[in-house]
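As the next step, I selected for study a record pairing a protein sequence with its backbone structure tokens, which the following lines show:
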Amino acid sequence: MDTASTAELPDVIAEVRGKLGMITLNRPKALNALSLAMVRDLLATLLAWQKDESILGVAIRGSNRDGVFGAFCAGGDIRFLHAAGSGGNPQLEDFFTEEYALNHLIHHFGKPYIAFMDGIVMGGGMGISQGGSLRIVTERTKMAMPETAIGLFPDVGGGYFLSRCPGAVGEWLALSGDTIGAGDALAFGLADGCMPAEQQAELWETLATTDFANVEALNAVVRSRFVAVESKSAAHRAEIDRCFAQPTVAAIEQALDAGSDWARAVAATLRKRSPLMLHVVLEQIRRARRMTLSEDLRMERDMVRHCFYLRPGQSETLEGIRALAVDKDHSPRWNPARIEEVGDAQWLAFFDSPWPAYSHPLAMLKD
């Protein structure tokens, strides 16, 4: 593929080269944020390739304004979510149902799924990479689930994969939305290997042009490129586990405030987030530890419905997106305004399913 001509190509470029199905996310001006059309293209492509016996595996990468790699995927299209949620567009419901079905398919794909997680990998970008069999990070990787900054929660299976990080790392990443690099991603089980960013193009071409005898040969070629990398958060692990294992959001904030400079900075971050959604997210991560992926995705589908419709005219998500991406005043008016003002009934309501089990939009998902 000629990188100079990607501007004329669709937002999802799917091609079969050799024994691999190869996908390039091609919406660089939006950091490859996923639209409903992109979710549908990805789903249709992967379902076809899953059944095609001539395709040994899949590789997926992002693109940037100057060519390929450099940015993987910054998440879902939050401007669309704001417009759809504000205007009653039913495609809002379609987006989450189909995105979560896509996330589930990737986890259960049954063939190698190699994600080149270069540059920004956030939100929905994690959803289309965490289910992969080989998740590759680079020295440029900026990984996060930053949804609490927009009054949302780490969805796309975030409850499932964050809750399986060691210790209380999942609570830290989910509540704060802090960004981590390659070393932490590996240490926390959110990546399988790191390779130098400059070597990605060569590996991509090798995958496309090698007549692999089997899956093992394919995996071996990828793994042979991996290099050692240091975890930058290792020094804070004991403090993370101690503070974020506290039973409530208020107790977590108090423990952080009593800690190191780093911990106090995290506490300051939490105070900028939606107090209501912090309570919802803490419960999400802790429930998800006992759930299968399908159960977690169904729970998250319930939760996201409530994010937009539980409190008409008072959606924390619409307010968070407004402040960050629409009006860009960076002054969300959260309701309640303080962590101490959130009542149990307010956050517990997010976990009541709007559907009977047999009518759930993700009832078909199996583990």
Q: What stands out?
A: Residues 91-107 form the longest helix (17 residues). The chain has two domains: 1-141+181-232, 236-367.
